[in-house]
Design a protein that fits this description.
Largest interface: A-B, 77 and 70 residues
Mean pLDDT of chain C: 82
Chains: A alpha/beta (975), B alpha+beta (198), C mainly alpha (336)
Oligomer: heterotrimer
Radius of gyration of chain C: 32 Å
Strand order of the largest sheet of chain A: 5-4-16-15-14-6-7
Number of strands of chain C: 4
CATH class of one domain in chain C: Mainly Alpha
Low-confidence stretches of chain C: 15-29, 324-336
Helix content of chain C: 55-70%
Strand content of chain C: under 5%
CATH topology of one domain in chain A: Dimethylsulfoxide Reductase, domain 2
Largest sheet of chain C: 2 strands, antiparallel
Strand order of the largest sheet of chain C: 1-2
Distance between the termini of chain A: 57 Å
Helix content of chain A: 25-40%
CATH architecture of one domain in chain A: 3-Layer(aba) Sandwich
Number of helices of chain C: 11
CATH topology of one domain in chain C: Fumarate Reductase Cytochrome B subunit
CATH class of one domain in chain A: Alpha Beta
Chain lengths: 975, 198, 336
């Protein structure tokens, strides 16, 4: 036997020798350099070893002898970076994962979640078949029975309470096709109460950013951060939330010797790599930004030319900033002036500089205002619209950008067409559905143009008195497809809300918290859904790039594709013919490619019109041709395209627009992916001066225009009328004119670039070097918002009640069909001295191992092992005051609902004194009670724990209904 | 001749644990066995660094010399492998290992360690390359397939390097020169009796 | 130059501001005005110079995993591979050598006056049961233990690695499982015979006369002479030491960490080889070293003349109790 080992050593030796012969020194040097991230991606083609041939003979977990191993490419389902997942499949079994070296986004990398993602289809803890709750017992039923019963119940509720009493809660886990169909489904059902995770993640970003410069998305990209000289993270812990993005950040930091500044209440894993760490008090982002702007304006570091040409209303900001002296900033936020001066100088003078933010900024009652302040900082320093600059908003889920784009939202139709008749008519034309029929689906015609109820308030719409909810009746049914039940604040209220529902349907790969929260005995259905690895379709990363995922394996157990479930429900409800009129359905499964083509046909407003399935698949097949830094293919069949055709990708697919890697980049011609700020709020505005006189100010760009533009100044959006004035209408083809005339036979001149289904208006504008949507100014003053100029407002539950008088939250108001009582709640909290009873700030965040509500990742044994207990971080000083030891059990009590939660203490200096922090991924324990027995057998996640949101409290952003889990109060005591 | 080594660039590591789960995924490592792990030093304080650690495949490996049954052998690539057939689960390699690499499944009621398990540098064990027997005992043999350890290949920030010692040392040196700082090639002094001048 | 000026001004301004802030708001002094985590990064070499090991935080609930590096493992290896082997070799081989030389020079210690034919109960069956249980365990433990340290060099070349691993595996099981009866035995021995093993004046006299090992001198002794007491205490204390350290090794991380286990192994190893050496002496004197000694533990009775020669005081005591001369076997010995 020993002989064998010697033999083997010899064999090993010869292997190594063989390799050495091949490449000159052990393993191929270039492969090493490339894999280690030193050499450029272009070397990929030189990658040495003939892996493919080795592959066939020998697979990871060895396949049966002779079985072929196929490689399938999909996209990681866990965050918005969009890492490529390579699955090795043999006989329908996903055997192993390989690094996706060719991806110009992830370059083979993954985080803990991506590296463990194969476990999702092992299915150890997946829901295996449909079940319903019968007298408190989970009972197996067939899909047919489930769809029938659910459909009947929906119809019953519709008849009794109206269409608005059913809530459609969708998902950022949908493919684009799933998201689009879900929104379309809600429209066909007849409600705008259709929402998804974006509500609680970046809804305030979308609102704030879109209100500033036109589109609600990351302006640049993950890889573009490599160009930055100064990188500021504010309320973002990318190391845990977007680990692969950190590859680009850290490499950029190293190559450029860039400044990396982290502004956060918590010394995070991201902050560990910073060159400057700024600790602020949770919820004081605006004072900090104004504190930075104070130094910028004082020292004249602002970009005056940029402001003059491309920004409206910066003087109004100066007035507000003047109030924020370094002393006041420090008094409110705790950040020393000197440190902010340092940050200001770096951000304004060591350019290009980028500002990255996440939930730390958005999840506040002032979320939209925070975002606006961030945009203003970028605008003031000219840090938008060029490589290395920009508002790099890192979104959370794999397809939260796509689901937002495709209108799984209470205020828009797909692709940001607002809730107005023109938009409905546009989509009825795309859908080839009668507008009047659509209108008839709503309880009243007015509801068609009424924003829905945000996902943060669904239980208020269930629990409040009927007359408090501005619709026909209370909410009676929740249709939840791919959304956790523990991600929304005020969970004790959600539990009450769940009990009051007539119908609860959860369609998800896992039972989720919805299945166990509350005390329901009947009327709950759980439907097993396939993960994205078991389906095919496209998904949009944070940088607006769209990637096509192949089906790696067939749906496991009785799981079904989202598309199939929507089709089955539509069929049951009797509108499948209308809804799938132009979409082929094979074996009850709508064809994803056809769905994308329909999106292309209607997606002009956001430039979702050029990304045909064929083009996207071509990109996935030729990933290696794309450069990491520029994201552009230098050769190959996709030559000239930017990877994933980041939207806007103008015109029809045949127009071959390459996509837009950076928004508003006027250094490039529109045809090459350039852009201008979008004049979305009119072309001019009447202002009243202090002396009472009025003047009209243009909102169009002033002497700034994109490269190759034939109009050397600002201009409005394009319509047929505008083209005619310019004499460019002659460039339209007869076919295009025919379509335009059909859209508006009476006044074709009013047909705009956004509703022209021929794509002609876009094409002509772009061929003249102009942006179809116009060339406007970004708005520092976003008139129309509750706070047109961002104003600091203390959190509802603030540890500094003495500041509330000066910085109160906005007055109570009705928003999204329900009351927002923030002002009253804040006042009551101050009056009752809540801050004394609950002296610790409670804030929350992500763990790298888990995602969102965590059902999926806590059910993954490889991930679950790494985080086995819910915990709360507490500063050593606070811990010793309370006699709490590291790792000990504690009770945490919240400021509302007499809430309490039992978890472990993690004593650490990550949090400052007076601050505590929790991860938000846990569920399955509720106020000290382990609910494991309430899950369907075998589908309980490996790790359970208290939900952070059991402790969170009231507070909603007035613009989007965003909740406030990032700044509330709690008390901790040893258990 | 290649001399395989690991190097964790702590100035890149963000404790994302991709290496840990990649390892679990590639080799179907059971719960409780951690062939690779990430430890954070000075947690929460400025200066905090995280380091991914597994068997470093030491030069003159202490585990091999203390092993009472000679289960360890070093391949021509410098990878320290072991034979589970010969292991008696005495735990001595664990006492000797400077990196806490050996892992033991709990098989009995008291202290009866099962057969030792550790990082194989994705190079399997004594059985025939990529045979089922090898996979069941040691996991995938990527080296024999011409691939490097998956932990390093999937590292989110390209912090963890695996490969020929000279090449990865050169990569690390270049990084340190380029960025102007480096907290050291963690473990190299102990494992290989060498340090990379930074 | 202008740049330098600007820098100085900036620093001065920053300083003034810090000062002003510090004066106006004492609370603010808590927060430094610049924190550069990159520049403050911990350095491995520095940590290793300061501490014997590097430990941090890890999310898995397993304290051992939080130790990143313990270079002490190398030192322990040196102990185990070099020091322990030398100690073991010298002590065990040395003891054997001494015994051989002693036997050659002194030969078997005879019962001077020949056997009287009369027997006296020396050890009850219970005592003998305990003794032999402990002794059997000890022999297995010793062989299986020595195998761990020396087997690789001495035994492995004689067989295939698989056979050696198989044998070692069984040896390990034997070592682990027999540790329990061994420990019980040691504990019982302690309780059973502690009364007779408290050192006293008789012992000093006995020791002064060298125990009569050389020549024909037979210093008086009670039931246990000083030599036996020495063995007793070696068994009790050594047994306790190997048991405690052994269990620490057998139950990893219960009450110890890796340092503790290394230390435990060092103690276990050193005490064990000394123990083994001492037991060689014990075995020698109980068998071929002395006529009539083995039957004390073998049958439980000894010849009265043997008792007179080696344990005169004990014999007297027994005689007073009126038990001397009884040849009835199995009779209960009086309580100690």
């Amino acid at each position: 036997m020993l002989i064998k080992r010697t033999e083997r050593q010899a064999r090993r030796g010869s292997l190594a020798t063989a390799l050495a012969d091949q490449s000159g020194g052990g393993f191929d040097r270039r492969t090493f350099l490339r894999r280690s991230g030193l050499a450029a991606g272009g070397l990929a083609a030189l990658g040495a070893l003939p892996l493919a041939s080795v592959r066939k003979a020998e697979a990871g977990a060895p396949p049966a002898k002779g079985a072929a191993v196929t490689i399938r490419k999909n996209i990681c389902t866990h965050c918005s970076v969009g890492c490529t997942v390579i699955g090795e499949v043999s006989n329908g079994v996903w055997l192993g994962q390989e690094p996706g070296w060719d991806s110009p986004i992830s370059r083979g990398s993954h985080c803990a979640k991506g590296s463990a993602t194969r476990e999702l289809v092992h299915g150890d803890r997946r829901l295996r078949y449909p079940v319903k709750l019968v007298n408190g017992q989970w009972t197996r039923i067939s899909w047919d029975v489930a769809i029938n019963e659910i459909g009947d119940k929906l119809n019953e509720i519709r008849q009794k309470s109206g269409a608005e009493s059913v809530y459609w809660l969708g998902s950022a886990k949908f493919t684009n096709e799933g998201a689009y169909l879900f929104r379309k489904f809600a429209a066909f059902w007849g409600t705008n109460s259709c929402d998804h995770q974006a509500r609680i993640c970046h809804s305030t970003t979308v609102a704030g950013v879109a209100n500033t410069w036109g589109y609600g998305a990351m302006t640049n990209s993950y890889t573009d951060i490599r160009n930055s000289k100064t990188i500021v993270f504010m309320g973002s812990n990318a190391a845990e939330a977007h680990p692969v993005s950190l590859q680009h950040v850290l490499e950029g930091k190293e190559v450029n010797r860039a400044n990396m500044i982290v502004i956060d209440p918590r010394m995070t894993r991201t902050a560990a790599h910073a060159t400057e760490y700024v600790r602020l008090r949770s919820g004081t982002d605006i004072p900090v930004i104004y504190g930075i702007l104070h130094h910028i304006f004082k020292n004249g570091w602002e970009d005056k030319k940029f402001i003059e040409q491309r920004v409206y209303g910066m003087d109004d900001i100066r007035k507000e900033v003047a109030k924020w002296t370094p002393e006041e900033v420090e008094r409110v936020s705790g950040v020393p002036g000197a440190q902010l001066e340092f940050v200001a100088k770096k951000f304004a003078t060591e350019k290009p500089a980028t500002l990255i933010w996440c939930m730390g900024a958005t999840q506040h009652t002032v979320g939209t205002a925070n975002v606006r302040a961030f945009c203003i900082l970028c605008l003031a320093t000219g840090n938008v619209g060029a490589p290395g600059t920009g508002a790099n908003i890192f979104r959370g889920h794999t397809n939260v950008q796509g689901a937002t784009d495709l209108g799984v939202d209470v205020v828009t139709l797909p692709l940001y067409y607002g809730l107005v008749e023109g938009a409905w008519r546009h989509w009825s034309r795309v859908w080839e559905t009668d507008f009047e029929w659509l209108k008839s689906r709503f309880d009243t015609p007015a509801m068609m143009n009424t924003a829905g109820i945000p996902s943060t308030r669904w239980f208020d719409a269930t629990l409040l008195a009927k007359d408090q909810v501005t619709q026909k009746d209370n909410l009676k049914a929740m249709m939840v497809m791919g959304h956790g039940g523990n991600t929304v604040t005020r969970m004790p209220k959600a539990a009450e809300g769940i009990d009051k529902l007539d119908l609860l349907v959860v369609a998800d790969p896992h039972p989720t918290t919805w299945a166990v929260l509350g005390e329901r005995k009947n009327g709950t259905y759980l439907l097993p859904i396939a993960t994205s690895y078991e389906t095919r379709g496209s998904r949009t990363s944070s940088n607006r790039a769209i990637q096509w995922g192949e089906q790696i394996v067939k749906p496991i157990f009785e799981s079904k594709d989202d598309l199939e479930v929507l089709y089955a429900l539509a069929k049951k409800l009797g509108f499948e013919d209308k809804m799938f009129k132009n979409i082929k359905v094979e074996n009850n499964l709508p064809v994803a490619e056809d769905v994308l083509r329909e999106i292309n046909r209607g997606g002009f407003s956001t430039g979702y019109c050029g990304q045909s399935p064929e083009r996207l698949k071509l990109h996935m097949e030729n990933q290696k041709d794309f450069d990491v830094l520029t994201q552009r293919a230098a050769s190959g069949p996709a030559k000239g395209d930017y990877y994933g055709l980041p939207w806007p990708c103008w015109g029809k697919p045949e127009f071959k627009h390459p996509g837009t890697p950076l928004l508003y980049n006027s250094n490039l011609s529109i045809k090459e992916g350039g852009g201008t700020f979008r004049p979305r709020f009119g072309v001019e505005r009447e202002e009243t001066l202090p002396d009472g006189t009025k003047r009209t100010v243009s909102l169009l760009a002033n002497g700034s225009y994109s490269k190759d533009s034939e109009i050397k100044d600002g201009y409005p959006e394009f319509t047929l009328g505008v083209l005619k004035k310019l004499g460019w209408d002659k460039d339209l083809t007869a076919a295009e004119m025919e379509v335009i005339n059909k859209i508006n036979p009476t006044t074709p001149d009013a047909v705009s670039w956004a509703i022209d289904l021929s794509g002609g208006i876009q094409r002509v504008a772009i061929e003249h070097g102009c942006t179809p949507y116009g060339n406007g100014k970004a708005r520092a003053n976003a008139f129309g918002l509750p706070d047109a100029i961002p104003v600091h407002r203390e959190p509802i539950y603030t540890p500094r009640p003495e500041l509330v008088a000066k910085y109160p939250t906005l007055p109570d108001a009705r928003q999204f069909r329900v009351p927002n009582m923030g002002f009253s709640v804040q006042k009551a909290a101050v009056d009752k001295g809540i801050a004394k009873q609950f002296p610790l700030i409670l804030t929350s965040g992500r763990l790298v191992e888990y995602e969102g509500g965590g059902e999926e990742t806590r059910s993954n044994k490889w991930l679950a092992e790494l985080q086995q207990d819910m915990f709360i971080e507490i500063n050593p000083a606070d811990a010793s005051d309370r006699g709490i030891k590291d790792g000990a059990w504690v009770w945490v009590t919240g400021a509302e609902n007499d809430s309490k939660a039992r978890m472990k203490a993690l004593v650490t200096e990550r949090v400052g004194k007076g601050v505590s922090w929790c991860p938000f991924h846990f569920a399955g324990w509720f106020q000290g009670v382990d609910q494991r027995s309430k899950y369907p057998k075998g589908a309980d996640p490996v790790v359970l724990g208290e939900s952070m949101n059991t402790l969170t409290t009231y507070g909603y952003d007035p613009v989007t209904g965003m909740q406030e889990p990032k700044a509330t109060l709690c008390q901790i005591r040893a258990a | 001749m290649a001399r395989m080594k690991f190097l964790c660039d702590a100035d890149r590591c963000s404790e994302c644990n991709a290496c840990v789960t990649a390892c679990k995924n590639e080799h179907e490592v059971p719960w409780g066995i951690n062939r690779r792990r990430v430890v954070t030093i000075n947690d929460g304080k400025p200066g905090e660094r995280s380091i991914s650690m597994a068997c470093m495949h030491c030069t003159d490996a202490p585990c091999a010399s203390v092993c009472p049954t000679n289960v360890f052998y070093t391949t021509a690539d410098g990878v320290v492998l072991h034979s589970k057939d010969l292991c008696i689960g005495c735990g001595y390699c664990f006492y000797a290992c400077p990196f806490g690499a050996p892992q033991y499944p709990k098989v009995g009621n008291f202290g009866s360690r099962g057969k030792m398990d550790k990082c194989t540098f994705c190079a399997g064990g004594p059985e025939a390359d990529n045979s089922k027997e090898e996979y069941d005992k040691y996991g995938t043999n990527r080296l024999a397939q011409g691939k490097l350890p998956l932990c390093a290949e999937m590292c989110s920030t390209k912090s963890l390097l695996a490969g020929d010692g000279e090449i990865i040392a050169q990569i690390y040196k270049q990084r340190v020169t380029k960025r102007g700082y480096g907290s050291g090639a963690w473990g190299w002094q102990t494992a290989y009796r060498e340090s990379i001048a930074s | 130059m202008a740049k330098l000026f600007a820098q100085i001004r900036f620093i001065a301004a920053a300083f003034a501001l810090v000062l002003a802030v510090a004066l106006t708001s004492p609370a603010a002094a808590q927060q430094p005005s610049s924190v550069n985590p990159s520049a403050a990064a911990v350095q491995e070499q520095k940590l290793l110079q300061e501490l014997s090991r590097i430990q941090g935080r890890i999310s898995i609930p397993d304290s051992r995993a939080s130790v990143l590096e313990q270079p002490a493992g190398r030192d322990w290896r040196d102990f185990h591979q070099v020091t322990l082997r030398w100690i073991g070799g010298i002590v065990i081989l040395g003891m054997l050598l001494v015994l051989v030389l002693f036997y050659l020079t002194r030969g078997m210690v005879k019962i001077e006056n020949g056997r009287s034919g009369r027997k006296i109960v020396r050890f009850t069956s219970f005592e003998r049961l305990i003794h032999w249980m402990t002794a059997t365990c000890f022999v297995v433990l010793a062989i299986s233990g020595l195998n761990i340290t020396f087997g690789k060099s001495l035994l492995m070349p004689l067989m295939s690695p698989e056979a050696f691993a198989n044998w070692s595996q069984w040896a390990k099981y034997g070592h682990n499982y027999l540790s329990f009866p061994f420990t019980i035995g040691v504990f019982a021995i302690f309780l059973m015979w502690v009364g007779g093993n408290i050192p006293n004046k008789v012992d000093s006299e006995w020791l002064k006369r060298g125990g009569g090992i050389m020549g024909k001198d037979h210093p008086p002794a009670e039931r246990f002479n000083a030599g036996q007491k020495l063995i007793y205490w070696i068994v009790v204390l050594g047994g306790t030491a190997v048991a405690v350290t052994g269990y620490l090794l057998m139950f990893p991380f219960y009450g110890t960490n890796i340092d503790g286990m290394q230390l435990a192994q060092i103690v276990h190893g050193v005490v064990s080889v000394l123990f083994v050496a001492a037991m060689f002496g014990h075995i020698y004197i109980g068998t071929i070293g002395m006529e009539g000694a083995f039957e004390a533990m073998g049958e439980g009775t000894v010849d009265v003349n043997w008792a007179k020669q080696h344990h005169s005081l004990w014999l007297q005591e027994e005689a007073q109790k009126g038990t001397a001369g009884s040849s009835a076997k199995g009779r209960m010995a009086p309580a100690e």
